[in-house]
Amino acid sequence: MLLKTHRSNWLLFFSYLSAFHKAGRQNEAVKVLEQLTHNAVVENRFNDAGYYYWMLSMQCLDIGRECEEQRKEMLEKFERFQHLAELYYVYRSIQRYTDEPFSSHMPETLFNICRFLLNNLTKDVPPGISKVNTLFALAKQSRKLGAYKLARYAYEKLQELHIPSRFLESIELGSLSIRSKPFHDSEDLIEGMMCYRCSTNNPLLNNQGSVCINCRQSFIYSASSYEVLPLVQFYLEEGISDEEALSLIDLEVPHTDEGNARGHNMVGNDMQALRIDGGLDYTEEDPFTAKMSFEQGGSTFVPVKVSCSVLRSMSRRDVLIKRWPKPLKWEYFRSLLPDVSITMCPSCFKMFHSEDYELLVLQHSCCPYCRRPIDEPN
Ligand SMILES: [Zn+2]
Ligand SMILES: [Zn+2]
Fold it and tell me: Which residues form the IFT122 zinc ribbon domain (predicted)?
């Protein structure tokens, strides 16, 4: 109910905004929104903070589209607000855990979220987000899941920070008792961090951000479990327009059943095994996976660029496209495990494992990220 009330207020606010087409008034509106978002952060309403930052980002994108003089500034704001929206969106789970440690939490999801957040907090920490709470949650979940080395690391990092008294005892006990555990992380967890482009097992924490340590391809996360999705972003070769790309992919080539047979039943604990034998070894048949190779040892990221013929070889069901409005560019993603069903929200372009998304939409009647109602047409 609270959520609905909030939403209708904001919708009213936005319809009021859209009555003013002058960029000057829209800028005022952005200022008001920034203040309201700031309040949500100060009051620890991180769920709202995430949502408001998302709204702000879209408002900036609108201004950037309409007003050329402000385009550069507004697109930078768009990027920054999109990033902050996600940080607050995930942080609410950590806050809920540290406030109510005995209520039910999914250890794997919390573990993934803590790592995602820490990978993104290496430069600066946005107001309200607590590194102590994140490391504390990470230490606890790592221990639970057998990532003992990571748990030790989290406890060591905590010792360097100012710890609130309510955590002191738990952290002291935890950092003592973790010493009786093996000094390594569970093999399953390490193998679960495989890069879909180059098959490198990645470390559980990476101060370079959410990218592969070897090929530097960005990881694409599910916006609910924060597992890495089997997707690789690709770009169009010079001169290919979005419309052309779309029509080439839409020609619907017959799809080989190779991947299907192997990637079948990708649920729960089967995932590790299936990722290994169903993963990246059908390079010969697939012109796209051939494009994924790159010069080893180079320090710069080499994006996957595809030609018309590679686009023609793709099946529509393996491709996800974030159709950003202008002046942004569309973003293309190719699934490497076609039987892992992925759903992308048509409004915020966040991606989810389909079964997670369906469950979340049932619970909230809207997208958990941007709150787009499910009955709204695309
Ligand atoms: Zn890689
Ligand atoms: Zn959404």
Answer: 187-232
Domain range annotation of the chain: 1-102, 106-215, 216-364
Residue type, 316: R
pLDDT, tens digit (0-9, with 9 covering 90-100), for 181-209: 988 888 888 777 889 999 999 999 998 88
**CA atoms of 259 and 273, how far apart (whole Å):** 14
CA-to-CA distance for 112 and 121, rounded, in angstroms?
Answer: 14
Q: DSSP 3-state helix, strand, coil percentages of the chain (rounded to 5)?
A: 50, 10, 40
Measured in Å, residue 217 CA sits from the centre of ligand 1 at 6
Beta bridge partners of 211: 218
Ligand 1 centroid, distance to 292 Cα (angstroms): 9
Predicted confidence (pLDDT) at residue 299 exceeds the cutoff of 50 = yes
Count Cβ atoms below 10 Å from residue 63 Cβ, excluding itself.
Answer: 20
Give residue 312 CA to ligand 2 midpoint distance, Å. 29
pLDDT score of 101: 76
Could you tell me the distance, in angstroms and rounded to a whole number, from the CA of residue 336 to the centre of ligand 2? 23
CB contact set of 372 (below 8 Å; sequence gap of 6+): 345, 346, 347, 348, 366
Question: Torsions phi, psi of 282, nearest 5?
Answer: -110, 40
**pLDDT for the residue 26:** 76
Phi first, then psi: give them for residue 342, nearest 5 degrees: -120, 135
358 CA distance to ligand 2 middle (Å): 12
Query: Percentage of the chain surpassing pLDDT 70?
Result: 82
| CB-CB contact of 139 with 174 (8 Å) | yes
Cβ atoms of 220 and 333 within 8 Å: the answer is yes
Q: Which ligand is nearest to the CA of 86?
A: 2
- Name the residue type at position 78: F
171-188: pLDDT as tens digits: 999 999 999 998 888 888
Which residues, in sequence order, are CB contacts of 121 under 8 Å at separation 6+?
87, 129, 131, 134
Cα 175 to ligand 2 centroid, rounded to whole Å: 39
Q: What is the model's pLDDT at position 47?
A: 92
**Which of 58-62, 265-269, 307-311 comes out lowest in average pLDDT?**
265-269
